[in-house]
Amino acid sequence: MPPAGIWVDGLVQSCIYVTMAFGMVLVFSILGILNWAHGQFYMLGGFVVYYAVTAAGIPFPLSLLVSGLVVGGLGMVVERVVIERLTAPGYGLLSVTAATNALIFFFEGFAGLAFGLMNKGMATELPGLLDLGPVSISYQKVAVIIFTLVIMIAMYVVLNRTKVGKAIRATSQEPNAASLYGVNVRWVQVIVMGIGCALAAMAGGLIGLVQSINPFMGRIPMIMSLLAVVIGGLGSLTGAIVGGIMLGLLNSVIAYQISYYSEVALFMLVILILLIRPQGLFGAAPK
Amino acid sequence: MKKWYNVLAILVTAAIVLGTFGMACEQKPAPAEPTGPITINIGLPMALSGTASPWGKIPTPFREAWIEIFNREGFQVNGKTYKLNLVQVDDENTAEGGAAAAKQLIYGDNCKFFAGHWTWNFSAIAAVTNPAKVIFVTRTGSPDALPASWGGAYDPKKMPYVVFGTPSQDEFTNWCYSIVDAYPNYKKLGILDSTVGKGGPGWVKVQADLDKAGIKWQSEWFTPGTTDFAPIITRFKEEGCDIVFVAGWIGEYMAFLKQRWEMGYKDMKVACSGPFVSIDMYKMVVGADALEGAIGAYEDNSKFKITKVNPKYIDMCQEALKIAAQKTGKPYEYTGEIKWVPAHTQILVQAMQKAGTVDDPDAIMNAIRGGTFDTVVGKWTMSGAETYGSAVNFGDTGALCIIKDGKEVYLSEHPMEPIP
Question: Could you point out which of A64, A138, A154, B72 has its C-alpha 20 to 30 Å from the C-alpha of B164?
Fold first, then answer.
């Protein structure tokens, strides 16, 4: 049985994957695309929080919100300028896939030029350790867990208790019917892209507490959150949460058990899950 | 009207042709012998963009200051005085960038020597410098981590005009000795490296050397891109490792430092194979508390206790640090560059003096092979038959520092035996 520290570590990883995967699923449900640059919105969020905290002196929780607004806004611009045009009738899925892949390198290059390549971090925020006897956990990790919970609760409220949330859910289920009931589907798509990118940005801001921020930090989390989405079931928000938690915990536990072979084992497990249940744990089987 | 234009065009063309011919025929007086110091351009392909650029950019004020101080006296060869001009070109720390930078430095900037180079593209650069007989003083990376895309590993026989530094694996082992010197009562030394080098000849040699020296060690590996080290830290802890040496990967090193502290293992000392490029950066990323107990390479020659360094060179380095601080307008504490441009240029200059020429690369290389050089990081004898292997270039002293109260403090030193 792995020690408690490994489970805590897995939980922190899970928080990041869940937040990212949730945003990715939202975008997929409404726009029908996988945003391959999701990890770069995560990276940009990390930088926005870093500068908001260190340069502007904005408290960390507010900085997280700022990063959500700024990067979410950027996501909306990307939707209007790039994705909308490439998802118009006549263009294949390949065009938008190529475009979002191009955005990976564009945003990384931009970040390198604008923010520099040296690692940055916010280790001075919330210093200190919580000693729980057999296990110690830094306040920063506690903050990651708490803020993730807050974000997920906020998302639950937005999706279930607000007009926008209802419009999003209606559009994800049946866009044509939603449109007939007066939902502006185009605006829902733009808003959802903004929310998805905002979630990625806030995950990036959170990770800045425990890991370094640099232009290339988004690549691995993007792959992991994509795996979480696939395990959970494409289009399922519950699946994204469960998939994210599973992946984070498994990643830590397997790495503890078998060290650097863990990735082989982890990805084999993912393939096995998909072979047994191709639609993912919570995805609907194709009709 | 058109006719007049034609006539005018013919006259102008004729004037230009005659004028050019006349200028070409004019007997010019022989150029006067320069009375002041003669400048020798030293090329430095350097990572000024890309992920390694902080290590290229941060030391630049120090490099420039060192050359400035060195040029006050310059150096004499056959009664003539020379000074150095350091020309840096971005090599992007890629094989292609290195080759392009080398071409620019040789054919564009007229550099006859390269010095101070430490990025991993040395084989690609050597492929350009070697045919041009440009002497190139560089590092020697581990052959494990040098695939063909980087230009491959060093080959002394094919590269007779390249002066290679200590092989990375020997440097690494030397630092391990230095750690054990500092903590003779250690329980077990953990070694963490990327899977990139696992099983290669460099790693095999490290294992054999550590075993031969009777060092108790335990290795763990991470795949490139790993950001979560908690499982590895736990494994090291369970194996009884009280000191962990993270080989060569700064991002991973910082993550390891921070995460071991977050797990409550603040007493676990963590070493890395490079100098601390910026203490402030470490504090921002790792946190001041987690940074305590971090061990890194140390090139501040004013603090060496075993390696003997000419006091004049120590003063020059200290002054260069002060000038760098003035230039940057803030305290300048990065001493990691000392073993690069200063040491490399000293090897070159002393070799020119021994050879009695600044123009004959064969004579200068003959002086380098087997020669003894007095540098800012001590006096060392280069190996003979092979052009690499001298401990003169980097890592030779095995000097380490530890972070105490947020500052680098001398920890230990294990000068390397010259390789025969």
Answer: B72
CA distances from A54 to A46, A63, A145 (A): 12, 10, 22
Residues of B with CB under 8 A from a CB of A: 50-51, 53-54, 195, 220-223, 225, 227-228, 230-232, 234-235, 250-251, 254-255, 258-259, 261-264, 278, 281, 283-290
Structure tokens at A37: 């640059």
The reply to whether B38-164+307-334+341-381 and B169-300+400-412 are identical in fold is: yes
Fold of B169-300+400-412: Rossmann fold (3.40.50)
pLDDT in tens, B261-310: 999 898 999 999 888 988 988 898 898 999 999 999 999 999 999 999 99
Q: Predicted ipTM?
A: 0.82
Token look-up 């020697």 returns: B140
Most confident of A82-86, A150-154, A169-173: A150-154
Buried (b) or exposed (e) across B214-226, using 16+ Cβ within 10 A? ebebbbbbbbeeb
pTM, 2 dp: 0.82
Per-residue tokens: B345? 């240029």
Burial (0-12, 13-18, 19+ Cβ within 10 Å), B24: exposed
The answer to whether the CB atoms of A136 and B53 lie below 8 A apart is: no
Percent above pLDDT 70 for chain B: 84
Give yes or no for residue B70 having a pLDDT over 90: yes
Q: Is A269 on the interface with B (CB under 8 A)?
A: no
Q: What are phi and psi of B77, to 5 degrees?
A: -135, 120
Per residue in B90-106, pLDDT (tens digit) is 998 888 999 999 999 99
Domains of chain B by residue range: 38-164+307-334+341-381, 169-300+400-412
Q: Is A71 on the interface with B (CB under 8 A)?
A: no
- In angstroms, the separation between the Cα of residue A208 and the nearest Cα of chain B is 8
CATH architecture assignment, domain B38-164+307-334+341-381: 3-Layer(aba) Sandwich (3.40)
Q: Phi/psi of residue A52, each to 5°?
A: -65, -40
